[in-house]
Amino acid sequence: MKKWERIVDRLISDAIGDGDVSHLSGAGKRLPTKDESHTPSEWRAAFKIMDDHDVMPEWVATGARLDKTDAALRKQIKTRAQQHRRQLARARATSQDSVAVESDWIRYRARFLERVERYNREALVYNLTLPRGIPHRRILRGEALIEQALQRDS
Q1: pLDDT in tens, 49-78
Q2: How far apart are CA 36 and CA 18, in angstroms?
Q3: DSSP 67-129
Q4: How far is CA 80 from the centre of its chain?
Q5: pTM of the prediction?
C-alpha cells in the first residue's frame, strides 16, 4: 500500500507543481462579480450554488415564462389590431360588407381574452409562491390592452 501512496503523492505533486499560476490567462486579474443587489441577502449563498450548477428555482423559470408570455400577448394584440383596422378600412373603401371583418375581430378578441385569463391565473399562482422581497407580477387587463392597441392605430 505504501508504494501506491508514494505514486499518488508524486502524481499530485506533479499536478500541483510549484504553485506558480502566473502563466495562466487572467492571472493577477480580479474574478468577475455579479450584481446581486436584487437578491435578498439570506438567499445569496443558495443562489450562487444553484447558479454554479445551472439550476434555478421554479419561480425564476415561471417568472421568465411569464415575461415572455406578457411580451407576446402585447405584441399579438398590437399586430392584430393594426390588421383589423386595415381590413375594416379596406372593406369600407370598397363598399363591402364589414360584418365578416367585425365577426372575425370578435372571435379573435374572445380568444385573446382567454389567453390573458390563463396568463393571469399563472401570474396569481406565481405571486403566491414567491419568496419574500421579490416583486409580484401585475395582472393584465385584457380589455384595456385591446383598447390601447386600437387607440394606437387611430
Answers
A1: 888 888 888 888 999 999 999 999 999 999
A2: 36
A3: HHHHHHHHHHHHHHHHHHHHHHHHHHHTT---HHHHHHHHHHHHHHHHHHHHHHHHHHHHHHH
A4: 23
A5: 0.66
